[in-house]
Amino acid sequence: MPPKLFAGILRYLCMISADKADYEGIFQKSIDHIQSLGYQNIKADFKEFERPKSYLKKGSDVSVTPDIVAEKGGQMHVFELGLKSQEPKLLKSKWMFLETLSKFKSYKFNIITTRGHVKFTDTLIHDLGFSPNQLIKL
Q1: Nearest 5°: CA angle at 97, between 65 and 41?
Q2: What is the DSSP string of 86-120?
Q3: 92 CB neighbour count, 10 Å cutoff
Q4: What pTM did the predictor assign?
């Protein structure tokens, strides 16, 4: 792996941990919203929740973990938080991978965003060609 790419990935992984600490309130609000909609078996990459399955990129140490995974009516749903990021390219890659995986496994893929992050998230969704119906605004 080229050193520049490795440094970028390492910075991204560190940033994600920092972002999650910064956006703890939004993460909790998202989980509460999902629970209020009747989702069950919620797994989240957050505090006291069981962590969702991570996917390892073949031939590297890069792993991708969905923010939230839940079940409703026998259907699995993958939820990602659409929050401003310093590395939108890496965030796009993560969403593209999870969206493709969701289609392959017949899961539903949604992105949750909140005030102050809507324009950023809309831009990424448009760039990726995702359906606007995949966006949940809190």
Answers
A1: 45
A2: S-HHHHHHHHHHHHHHHHHTT-EEEEEE-TTSHHH
A3: 15
A4: 0.84
Q: pLDDT tens across 94-113, in order?
A: 899 999 999 999 999 999 99
Specify the CATH class of 3-137 in words. alpha beta
Q: Does the pLDDT at position 20 exceed 90? A: no
Please identify which residue in the block is written with the tokens 């990021």: 85
Phi, psi for 101 (deg, rounded to 5) = -60, -40
Reported as a single tens digit per residue, the pLDDT across 33-77 is 999 999 999 999 888 889 999 888 787 777 889 999 999 999 999
Residue-level pLDDT at 14: 40
Angle at 68 between CA 111 and CA 48, to 5 degrees: 145
Where exactly are the structural domains of the chain? 3-137
Count CA atoms within 13 Å of residue 123 on its CB side: 10
Overall residue count recorded for the chain in this entry = 138
Question: Distance between CA atoms of 38 and 110, rounded to whole angstroms?
Answer: 16
DSSP state of 5: H
Helix or strand run (H / E) with residue 9: helix 3-22
